[in-house]
Structures are given as C-alpha cells and as structure tokens.
Fold:
Amino acid sequence: MLLAGICTCTAAPKYPKAPSLTFLYTVNITAGAAYKLGAGPKGFRTITVIANGTFAGPKLKGTVLPVGADWALTDANHPVNGTLFPDVRQTFLTDDGAYIQIFETGASQPDGTVFVRLTYEASSEKYYWLNAVVAIGIIRPLPPDSLTIDTWQVRLAGDPLSEETWRRADILCRW
Structure:
C-alpha cells in the first residue's frame, strides 16, 4: 500500500524549454602576426593579431578593424593536442559608421571544433540592443591564415520580444 502511494506521487522529470538561436552574422577574419610566448603558469600563450576582416548578417554588416587580437591559451597539461581557450577582442565598424566592441571566450572540443561566447559593447542607438545580447559562435579555420565565426543570439524559445523592445528598454535603463 505504501509503495503504491510512492509510485503515484513521483512524476517524470520536466525540463525547461531549451533556448532558441537567432542568426546574427558571419565574420571572416584574416590573421596577422602570431607571437608564441611559450609556457606560463596558465598554459601556452599565443597572441595572434587581427589584420582585417568583414562581417555580414541580417541586421548588421561592415568591416573588422585591425586593432584586435586573440590571447589564446593551450592547456598546460596537453600542449600538443590540448584544449585551446581563445580570448579575443575585436572591433567592428558597421557600414553606417558605428563601432561595436566584441569580447569572445571559449574552448575547443575534442573533435577540434571551437565554441565561443560573445558579448558586445555598442554606443550607437541603432546597435545598443547588442549590449544585452548573449551570443554563441563556432570558429572554423580557413587555411592558411583566416577563419570564420558563425554567430547566433541565444533567446528563450518563443521569445516575443523584438530588438525594438530591447532597444527601448536599454534606453530607459540608461536614464
């Protein structure tokens, strides 16, 4: 009798809805000089300068300015095939003259895929909505010295809020 009561009280676990992804842009970057700093207390540091690039998506497009770099670390315990931890700072100049600062961190996976999470700083009213965006990207190398990053915004599944709503909320928060 007691066992029957226990069995009827437990239900299958319900999980929250997974977030959805909305495509933001693809960026193509050409690498400049690479500086191998060697082994340090946190791993093997390599700094790779961003020479230039372009980006395009449904709501923004422009060029990548040559003022950024990747301060990547490779796992100190596995320097040859270890996990790569990118730490990127780059600056976009949109086709309408706005600057957007991008910060990327992430980790490579055992199959070599590199995932990054991106955050943004934008002062332009048109792109201010990016400041509240959480985005993910997949880095794909393009030999010999380029890469592409496909980038998506993370949203709640069925999120009814538009970028205009986020923009208005951001403007109110700045007051």
